[in-house]
Prior knowledge:
By secondary structure, this protein is of the alpha+beta class. It has two domains: about 1-30; about 35-205, no CATH class. It contains five helices and ten strands, in the order αβββαββββαββαβα. The strands form two sheets. Strands 1-10-9-4-5-6-7 form a seven-stranded antiparallel sheet. Strands 2-3-8 form a three-stranded antiparallel sheet.
Amino acid sequence: xxxxxxxxxxxxxxxxxxxxxxxxxxxxxxxxxxxxxxxxxxxxxxxxxxxxxxxxxxxxxxxxxxxxxxxxxxxxxxxxxxxxxxxxxxxxxxxxxxxxxxxxxxxxxxxxxxxxxxxxxxxxxxxxxxxxxxxxxxxxxxxxxxxxxxxxxxxxxxxxxxxxxxxxxxxxxxxxxxxxxxxxxxxxxxxxxxxxxxxxxxxxxxxx
Length: 208
């Protein structure tokens, strides 16, 4: 009898550990994951001409990133939206995807900040077709980066068909666009990490 009591007692930590691991796993499959950023608002709207997303991402740049910006190094941000259609018989199908590329740079001659926004990647060699806006301060331009207003992420035809639709939204600082020498020093450094992700049941959200 004493042996049985000791055995059950020793099993308690293992059971608690199992419960803790399961809780962590459930947390990883939750609706949101963030690093150095917070998704303060996320709203989707379905209209006759497509699906639109509005969001606000709150984050604060580290002193290292601010110093790089003031030295004339452009910093890139990327917003990604992906609509998936669930299929019980196979892998989920990608119904639609959209990207929003943003480039923040300081203009020494005018002492102003420029934000270029495009649906295509922005490279230093050429900004291509992009919307350019100027701001008087770093705070103002970052506030503009943090707000995404009525961004079209899917066409009406892409949302047709049966089945549940899921939305994956991600916002991040794109370190791959930094100068090569700076990339080597910034890889894995928390000062250069700005990332937030959320997944929502789009069918349920639009059905409210």
